[in-house]
Structures are given as structure tokens and as C-alpha cells.
Amino acid sequence: MAAGKTQSRSVEALDRALSGEAALFRIWSAIKKHPIYSTNFVRLGEILARRNLWREAGLLYEIACRHHPRSYNLLVKLGKAQAQAGKETAAIKTFQKTARRFPDRFKPYLALEKLYRAGHHPELAVEMYEAIPEHNPIREKSRYRLFSLLARRGDYEEAIEVLRDAIKVYGESFQRCLELGKLHFRQRNYLGAVQSFQSAAAFQPDNIKVRVWLGVALKELGNLGLAEYEFNEVLRIKPDSYQGLIHLAELKVKTGDHAAARAYLDRVDEIAPHNARALICRGWMAYEEGNWEKAVERCEDGLKATYAYYVWEQVLAHRILAAATAKLGDREGEAFHRMMAEAIAGKDTYESLIGLAESLIRGKQFRRARRTAGRILELFPRNTRARIVEAEACFKEGRLEEAVEVCRATLVHIPAVYVREKIRAHTVIALACKKSGNPAEYRRHKKQIYSLIRELALQPREKQAIKATVALES
Predict the structure, then answer these.
(1) What is the rounded CA–CA span in Å between residue 449 and residue 444?
(2) CB-neighbour burial class of residue 363 (10 A; exposed 0-12, middle 13-18, buried 19+)
(3) What is the C-alpha to C-alpha distance for residues 351 and 357, in angstroms, rounded to an integer?
(4) pLDDT tens-digit profile of 399-428?
(5) CATH code, domain with 12
(6) Which burial class, exposed, middle or buried, applies to 12 when counting CB atoms under 10 A from its CB (0-12, 13-18, 19+)?
(7) Band of the pLDDT at 152, cuts 50, 70, 90?
(8) Which comes out higher in pLDDT, residue 456 or 50?
(9) pLDDT tens-digit profile of 274-324?
(10) Nearby residues of 264 by Cβ (< 8 Å), 6 or more positions away
(11) 66 lies in a domain?
């Protein structure tokens, strides 16, 4: 009876939503008349998805799954629509059901991993992958995701064990040896990294990526001659290789041969004008030559020109900037750049920086939090989570109107799937309204927060923490 009422309400909601669209309503009418044809559900659902009407798509796929309960395709589409609509709890339940019914399909596991990570519970994804039995054909794929999750959270020893176990069971491969080398490198076990990269190179001797990694590991190990040989091997494979040229330039700066470094950088400029890493390398040379102002200028220009996924060049730039600002007597600048270099070294840039910015808010370092958020916005100009960090810093500093303004402008651009960001934005507005003596607006935003909380798969403690914050109890 309850299921029948739910379906009736879903049908009525879709009737209302689609009544103004003649073409869509015709498809919907055909579905109601002949629900046995799953292709019509998929056809209408894809149109709704293209229009970002995820709530309506979710209702449609709920009805579809009642008529076609054994359809893997419809279950996956339902979970995706629920996730995109911000209905995290419902999406998790859908994908868990799909994984139970179709344990040898990998897509539901990937979707659950994404949802668990979005909810700040990566340990649930780790447990999920660890529970996949050995006889399941997707176990080999799951090993890759498991080691990636462990590495992401810094559990390098466990990640290495997972990879070694995969090599033992499934054999060596180029990718497994390469990833094992990267893990050893992150641990600063450069000898282990060299050995793993050499194993990867045995599979693909002319692979530029592994040759570069091998050269970098040899350089860190202190064997500069062999490192130079590997970078020259890259140029042998591809004479105009940017990777080969820039690494040779950096190697020459390290050994003090600035003339040779400039020659390599000039070749880089021909291939890639105004290249971020070349600018940073020139900043490094300027620092070594005692021109600290020029070092700062070049490295700042390089940071503006770089992309988020080029982690090493950002780390190098921040390290040079920390040293140069120290020489110039800028202690705050030195501390900031040291903090930034440490935060992103060997890690995902965005996850590291946004985590740092939010921890600075908790540590009441609001100026640095805003500066870190500003760096995130240089790399990701539309990032709403960084905007909320800026708003939280403004609120904590007592600039209530500015905080509210930033949050209101940001709320318009937050996709439905990022429910936690919406909760944080509404929380800032609610608390600002309460402090400025606007109880009606405070109650309105508090009501929205409670409504959004119901969509999330939160632990009881997490719910209590959010509610306590909104009530100004903590």
C-alpha cells in the first residue's frame, strides 16, 4: 500500500513537472500507457539529465525500477540521479542494492566510493573494497582503487602491501610497477622507487613517463650522472620532449651550471612560450644568483600560469618563495609558502589545499585561510567550497554583511549534489542573521539546513555537531 502511494505521488509530481513541455509529456504519456518498455524511461531520463532536472529524473527512474526491478541499467541511472539531486542517503542505498544484486559489476562500487569520499568517510570505501571476495572477477580492479584510496590518505605502507599482493596474485605489469615506484618515491624510499621504475621500464623501454620518473628518483638518490642519462634518453625517444628539457634544465640549476640551464630553458620557450615551470626554474636561478626580488616575481608568475595537477612545480615554487621572502625579511610570506609547500607535496593539490584552508578556519588563522582559499580560486576559479571558506573567515572576523553576501552569491552556483556546501553556506547566513538581530531570516535558513540534513547519510554525531553550530551552542 505504501509503495503504491509513493508511486502515485511520483506520477503526480512528474505530471506537474512535464505538463508544460509538449514533447516530453508525450513520452511521459507513452510511458504511463506502456511501462513495460524500459527504453522510453531511459529516453526521457536522458533528456531530463541533460537539462539538469535530476530530481525529476530520480522520480522517473524510481517508477522505472518498480516496473523493471531486475534492470541493472535502470538501477545505476536511479542512483546517479539521486546523487546528482543531492539525495545522498537514497543514492547510497540504491548503489548498495545494485552491488548486492550485481556483485560482479564495478560501476556501483565506484559510485559508492565517490559518495563515501564526498561524505568524508573514505574508510567506508576501503572496507567495501577489502570485503570483495577473491573469486569475484572485479577483485583485480578493486585492488587498484584500494591502493589509490590508501595512498590518498597517506597510508603508504598499506598501499604498498596491496600493490605487492596484486603483483603476487596477478603478476607484474607496467602499471603496477609504475604505481609501486610512485609509492616508494612518496615515502622517500628512492632506492625502492628506482628498482620499481626499472621494472616498469623493462615492460616499455621507450615510455617517456617511466623514464622521467626513473630520472627524478635517481636525482633524489644523489646519482646525478645516471639521472642526466635518463633525461637524455627521453630526448633520444622524443628530441623536442618538454619533460626531458625541463628536467635537464632543473638538473643543471642544481649542479650550478646556469649557462646550460638557460640553453635548455630557451628550447622550452620555443616549444611552450610562457611555460609555468620554466618561469619557476628561472626564479630558482635568480635566487641562486642572489636576486631575491626577481626570484619572487618569476615564481609568482609561474604559480599563476600553472595548473592544479602539476604538483611538483607548485611545491618547487613555494619552496623558492619561502626562501626568497625569508631573505627579504617577509616572515609571514615565508611561513605561508612553507605551509603551502608542505601541504601539497606528493598529494592531490585540491584536496590538500581545501583541507588546509578549512583546518586554518578551525585553528582561527583566518587571514591565512583566506589567502589559501584565494590560491584555490586561482587554480579553480568556480570552486564554491573555497568561496565558503572565504565567507566563514569573514564571519569569524566580524564582517557579517560581507560573509552573507559571499554565501548568497555562492549558493546560486552550488550544484545540488554538494549538499554539505549548501549547509555550510546557510549556516554562515543563519548565524550572521542571528548576530545582527534578524530572527526571521535566522529561522528560515535554519529550517533549510534541517531539510538538507535529512538528505545526507550522516552519523548521529555529525548531525548533532551541525545542529549545535546553527543553534550557537558550540
Answers:
(1) 9
(2) exposed
(3) 10
(4) 999 999 999 999 999 988 888 899 999 999
(5) 1.25.40.10
(6) exposed
(7) confident
(8) 50
(9) 999 999 999 999 999 999 999 999 999 999 999 888 888 999 999 999 999
(10) 245, 246, 248, 249, 252
(11) yes
Q: How far apart are the first and last CA of the chain?
A: 44
* Residue 244 buriedness (CB in 10 A; 0-12 / 13-18 / 19+): buried
C-alpha–C-alpha distance, residues 93 and 196, integer Å: 40
Residue 34 lies in a domain: yes
* Sole residue written with cell 549556516: 427
The DSSP annotation for 357-411 comes to HHHHHHTT-HHHHHHHHHHHHHHSTT-HHHHHHHHHHHHHTT-HHHHHHHHHHHH
pLDDT of residue 467: 61
C-alpha cell at 363: 585553528
Q: How far apart are CA 246 and CA 292, in angstroms?
A: 22
Residue 256 zone, left/alpha/beta (φ > 0; ψ -120 to 50; rest): left
Task: Using the predicted structure, report yes or no on whether residue 11 has a pLDDT greater than 60.
Answer: yes
Tell me whether residue 320 is in a domain. no
Gap between the Cα atoms of 123 and 140, Å rounded: 19
C-alpha cell at 70: 531486475
In a domain, 254, yes or no: no
41: domain range?
Answer: 1-85
- Cα separation, 370 vs 393, in Å, equals 7
Cβ distance 195 to 211 under 8 Å?
no
Q: Which of 15-19, 88-92, 231-235, 355-359 has the weakest average pLDDT?
A: 15-19
List, in order, residues 6 or more apart from 218 with CB less than 8 Å away. 190, 194, 224, 226, 227, 230
What total number of domains does the chain contain? 1
Rg (CA), the chain: 27
Q: What percentage of residues in the chain have a pLDDT greater than 70? A: 95
